């Protein structure tokens, strides 16, 4: 059984809808100050013990980077037990993740990727009022403590449309996890072993994921990848308009690139026309597979949702070993409807991956499925939404009698920075607070 009272609520809890969120990053200059704040935070961070209670929709999560664990004075023998991707950090993994050109670390928003980010606090709530209350409780843990400094903040929120900046309904799918008490959103998907997402439990291979010692430090923790992704909304809209013959065709192209209509309705269920009622129904909008569409006449094999979660498709690699918990929170104002020129305002998503295997989950999906096409016999074709084609990308839409092909795909998403972090269990937070150096 999952020890829910020791697991941070943010590990297993789906993001509320609507939502407000804030990310705050800290640098730890004094180990004793850092340990004091971690101890205080252990009383503020909510556990996953009551995942369906109304109060569980508001939570504070606390995560530490590798440099942050070093700054707290964690023994080297414990540090060596963390995954090597985590120890290297996201900036060092940039090439493998496709963060090149404009997305490369030298262009990232500081302090992201610099080594100065030690502690990541994330606060999520259904509304601004409850968010401010949670932020106040978190603020009390570090204000007035010398030796720890807040160095960056990003506020996020639901857009008025209820969608992400490109106009799609977001955060629809959620996998079922044994022992979590939270149902999945696809009845065709059997529950995953808890060890795919939480350390200390068997995973889909039948073994235990590698875990740092002592056990109190690693057990009930997990890894998280935070990424700030700038979205070029005007470019996306312009590209659709330039390659479509009508407003209806624009929406069809947008649906084919994503694998869903912008309402959230999946092409697998309604390939010829949108169904907003279906798109808004959480009981039905993710309840499908691809077995009856091997060629992709309904959902193109290269579409975003088919790449990031091939479901029952027969592809290279075992699909269940690469399943991810994914959360997205929008930042910046909406670009007004119909505007086709960029207004110079920063907008996009704060993306978060949660899982026990940074390498075979987040990095595999990013490098092999999003930035590559060999697993679907698509050659070097990349994800049409979040891939990085730099103006030379293409996207094929299977159709009878002649497939449709989009060429000259520009870069719609630019990485503005990111960090790998570790979300410790609550007992681990108290263990970290009691460290002596």
TrEMBL record:
It comes from the Bacteria. It comes from Vulgatibacter incomptus. One of its GO terms (molecular function) is metal ion binding. Keywords: Iron, Metal-binding, Oxidoreductase, Peroxidase. Signal peptide: none annotated. Residues 21-140 form the DyP dimeric alpha+beta barrel domain. This is Peroxidase. The keyword Ribonucleoprotein does not apply. Residues 272-311 are annotated as: Disordered. Its cofactor is heme b. GO terms for cellular component: cytosol. Residues 272-287 have a biased composition (Basic and acidic residues).
């Amino acid at each position: 059984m999952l020890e829910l009272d020791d697991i941070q609520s943010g590990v297993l809890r789906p993001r509320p809808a609507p939502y407000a969120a804030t990310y705050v990053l800290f640098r730890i200059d004094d180990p004793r100050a850092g340990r004091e704040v971690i101890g205080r935070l252990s009383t503020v961070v909510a556990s996953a013990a009551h995942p369906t209670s109304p109060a569980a929709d508001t939570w504070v999560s606390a995560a530490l980077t590798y440099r942050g664990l070093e700054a707290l004075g964690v023994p080297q023998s414990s540090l060596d037990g963390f995954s090597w991707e985590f120890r290297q950090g996201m900036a060092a993994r940039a090439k493998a993740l496709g963060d090149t050109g404009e997305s490369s670390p030298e262009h990232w928003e500081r302090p992201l990727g610099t080594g100065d980010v030690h502690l990541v606090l994330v606060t999520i709530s259904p509304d601004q009022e409850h968010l401010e209350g949670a932020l106040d409780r978190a603020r009390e843990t570090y204000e007035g403590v010398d030796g720890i400094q807040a160095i960056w903040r990003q506020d996020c929120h639901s857009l008025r449309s209820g969608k992400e900046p490109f106009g799609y309904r977001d955060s629809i799918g959620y996998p079922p996890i044994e022992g979590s008490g939270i149902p999945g959103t696809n009845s065709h998907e059997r529950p995953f072993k808890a060890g795919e997402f939480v350390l200390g439990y068997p995973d889909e291979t039948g073994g235990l994921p590698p875990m740092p010692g002592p056990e109190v430090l690693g057990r009930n923790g997990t890894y998280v990848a935070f990424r700030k992704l700038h979205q070029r909304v005007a470019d996306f809209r312009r590209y659709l308009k330039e390659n479509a013959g009508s407003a209806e065709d624009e929406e069809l192209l947008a649906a084919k690139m994503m694998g869903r209509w912008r309402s959230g309705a999946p092409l697998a269920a309604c390939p010829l026309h949108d169904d907003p009622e279906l798109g808004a129904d959480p009981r039905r909008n993710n309840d499908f597979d691809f077995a009856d569409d091997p060629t992709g006449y309904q959902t193109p094999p290269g579409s975003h949702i088919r790449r990031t979660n091939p479901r029952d498709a027969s592809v290279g690699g075992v699909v269940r070993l690469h399943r991810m918990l994914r959360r997205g929170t929008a930042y910046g104002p909406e670009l007004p409807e119909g505007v086709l020129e960029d207004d110079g305002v920063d907008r996009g998503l704060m993306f978060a991956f949660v899982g026990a295997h940074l390498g075979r989950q987040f990095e595999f999906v990013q490098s092999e499925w999003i930035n590559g096409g060999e697993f679907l016999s698509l050659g070097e074709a990349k994800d049409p939404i979040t891939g990085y084609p730099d103006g030379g990308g293409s996207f094929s839409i299977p159709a009878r009698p002649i497939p449709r092909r989009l060429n000259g795909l520009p870069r719609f998403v630019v990485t503005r920075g990111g960090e790998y972090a570790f979300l410790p269990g609550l007992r681990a937070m108290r263990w970290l607070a009691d460290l002596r150096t």
